[in-house]
Amino acid sequence: MRIEKFIQDGQDAKVVERIHDKIVDMLTAGEYIQYISLQKKPAVTLLPDSIAISNKRIFLCEFTKLGLATNFEIFSWTDIKDIAFKEEIFGSKVTVIPLAGENLTIDYIPKVQARKLYQLIKTALENPSGEKKEEPTPVPTEPKITEQVAPPVVQPPVTPVPPMPTVSVPEVTPTGEGNKMVEDDELTQKLQKLKSLYDRQLITQAEYENKKSELLAQL
User: CB-based contacts of 6: which residues, under 8 Å, 6+ apart?
Assistant: First the structure.
């Protein structure tokens, strides 16, 4: 049944079908009916007032002349300022507030239907074009590469090595035999010098022997 989804909140199927067929003939390209709400008075009402909404407009319908005529108040979502409803003992009073002109009110709307109308109309006012908003496709982000920095090498503290103590060695002044050693060294140097003179033939052998004898005599 083509109107099955419009009678799930207690709407009268015959009245919904009649309103549905009238509105379908007024739909524009890309427009479709979203919800139909019917007035329900405490007394029996054969032809109740109704509010229907599409993805582009809102339709307020009133049957007149025993159902032989129908009055429609039609607004696009861009012409609507807001929607309000008030829950009463018998149903709710729904008020459509246009940007220009008088407010339009239909009473005795069942509370469940009034809440559904409020939700759908508020959503439509946020997107008056009636187009479905597509969620932006998330752009994958490349993982951020964090450069790994090696921690600085901490050198262990260097313990200074204390300098070795300087040991002073007292100078010993040679006495006695020490003086003799100095004299012997001088004599040895003289003998060596004498021998060098002889080896270089700067003196004769006789001179060498005589001088040598003199030096050795000093021992």
Answer: 16, 20, 33, 35, 36
